[in-house]
Design goal:
Length: 142
C-alpha cells in the first residue's frame, strides 16, 4: 500500500495529486476544476485524497510518545489553515483583529452547539447500533 493514495492508482486510469506543500486555495480550486472536467469528459471517476493531521493526543492522558517534536513541527509548517491565514495576511485581507473575531465567533458557535447537545434527550439504547454495521445483529440484549 502506498503512503499516499494519490500516488497509487490500482486501475491505471485515474490521475492523482498530492496537495501537500501547495497553496491551499489555489490547489483546491484547480484540483476540483480538473477533477470535474476529467469526469465530465467521460473518463470515469477520480479520487481526491485530502489528509489531515491531529496535533493533539487522542485524550488528555495521551503522552503522544508515538511521534517526535520534529514530525509535529513539519506538519505544522505545512498546515493548510496556517498557510491560508498567512496567505490572506500577505494579501492584506486578514489581520490579527479579524482573526481574533473569527476565533471568538467559532468558539461561540461550538459552545452553542455543545449546549444544544446537552439539552437533547439521550438516545435509545437500540440506536447505538444504527448505521454502524452493514448487517446489524439486532437490538442490544442484556
Amino acid at each position: 500500500v502506498a503512503e499516499n493514495l494519490a500516488n497509487q492508482d490500482t486501475t491505471g486510469t485515474a490521475p492523482g495529486a498530492d496537495p501537500y506543500r501547495r497553496k491551499t486555495v489555489t490547489f483546491a480550486d484547480r484540483m476540483s476544476q480538473a477533477a470535474a472536467e476529467y469526469c465530465r469528459g467521460g473518463n470515469g471517476s477520480i479520487f481526491l485524497e485530502v489528509k489531515t493531521y491531529r496535533y493533539r493526543g487522542h485524550s488528555m492522558s495521551d503522552p503522544q510518545k508515538y511521534r517526535t517534536k520534529e514530525e509535529l513541527a513539519q506538519y505544522q509548517r505545512y498546515d493548510p489553515i496556517g498557510r491560508l491565514e498567512k496567505q490572506l495576511k500577505d494579501q492584506g485581507l486578514l489581520d490579527e483583529k479579524k482573526i481574533d473575531a473569527l476565533h471568538q465567533a467559532i468558539h461561540k458557535q461550538v459552545e452553542e452547539a455543545h449546549h444544544r447537545a446537552e439539552q437533547d434527550p439521550d438516545p435509545e439504547l437500540d440506536d447505538v447500533w444504527r448505521d454502524i454495521y452493514a448487517n446489524p445483529f439486532g437490538p442490544y440484549r442484556s
